[in-house]
Design brief:
With 325 residues, this protein is of the alpha/beta class. The protein is 46% helix and 13% strand.
Length: 325
């Protein structure tokens, strides 16, 4: 039997505690119906018998304290709630237990921004990790030794698992069910919970906010110029001259400040504008393409799909009911 320990941290999201428990216990029911023994022994574990979450609005009763769990097979770290630094500090006493269990052979799965707590253990240093697209910049700043897997729904490396944003954690949970049981059981669970089992990217949901949370004023000036000139074909030389820097120095400082190359940043700004246009207007693909300064349809489609995971037509049909009609 697999021992599953769902950690109940303070400052955590209630659904991300309840949903894993619900899923694994439901899989046990599937197995019982088919004449098999239940596979998962699911426990809620924490530093206290009663843990208050969501700013004290709810409380969760744990079945075991961390010091009572001598060995487990899988630790689930739910999504955190509120300020990440505060949430980590509040739960810092749980970090040694997570590391101890990992060193004993346990696997550890972080759901959404639960990745911040997992990364705080140091176990992710030098490894890849997924987290909510809206928190990736903050994550990179706090944990520079961890490689963020942009857009990924599920990341696995050395018995450490992480998921993309919000409800993407269901895909990680189904991934674990398939690993511990079989594909057929995972598919059954996906149908029962109405989850698209093979969704592998959160890129279509991401909103690019410009990455201006830095102190390099020259680079901010260049970013503002890009934001205001979406329809133009902007060159690196033009931007470097604008802020009185040599090209190599400008490119280096831009990458350091924004975590994107200059061309990556320009493309992401333009594609974000294109996404908003597809969502809210009746413009056709070519009209939107020209609006963001592209003249090559193939190039526009390729860059749009690389950033969003969808073609322009697929994106428009997904988010614009007027366009579909």
């Amino acid at each position: 039997m697999k021992h599953v320990s769902i950690l109940v941290p303070e400052n955590s999201v209630m659904q991300a505690i309840a949903d894993p428990r619900y899923l694994f216990l439901t899989v046990n029911q599937f197995m019982a119906v088919s004449g098999k023994k239940p596979l998962f022994n699911v426990q809620l574990v924490g530093l206290k018998k009663e843990v208050k979450i969501n700013d004290g609005l709810f409380s969760v009763n744990t079945s075991q304290l961390l010091n009572e769990v001598k060995k487990t097979d899988l630790i689930i770290i739910p999504a955190l709630f509120g300020d990440m630094k505060t949430a980590i500090e509040t739960n810092r006493k749980a970090l040694p237990w997570i590391k101890e269990q990992y060193n004993k052979g346990a696997e550890v799965a972080a759901l959404c921004v639960g990745a911040f707590l997992l990364a705080s253990t140091g176990l992710l240093n030098g490894k890849k990790c997924s987290t909510h697209w809206g928190f990736q910049n903050e994550f990179r700043e706090m944990f520079p030794e961890v490689e963020v897997a942009d857009g990924s729904i599920v990341t696995e490396e050395h018995r450490l698992y992480s998921s993309g944003g919000a409800m993407s954690y269901w895909n990680l949970l189904l991934y674990l069910v398939e690993k511990y049981t079989d594909r057929q059981t995972a598919i059954l669970a996906s149908k029962y919970f109405a989850i698209d089992i093979d969704r592998d990217s959160q890129s279509a949901f991401a909103i690019f906010r410009g990455q201006k949370n830095h102190t390099d004023e020259a680079i901010k000036q260049a970013q503002e110029f890009i934001d205001k000139n979406i329809q133009e074909k902007i060159t690196i030389e033009e931007l470097a001259a604008l802020v009185s820097l040599g090209r190599r120095s400008f490119e280096r400082r831009f990458k350091t400040a924004t975590n994107n190359s200059v061309l990556e940043y320009i493309n992401r700004v333009k594609m974000e504008f294109a996404k908003r246009s597809f969502e809210s207007s009746r413009k056709n693909i070519n009209e939107v393409m020209y609006d963001v300064g592209y003249t090559d349809t193939k190039s526009f489609r390729s860059i749009f799909k690389k950033i969003t995971g969808l073609t322009p037509v697929e994106y428009r049909n997904k988010y614009n009911k007027m366009a579909v009609v």
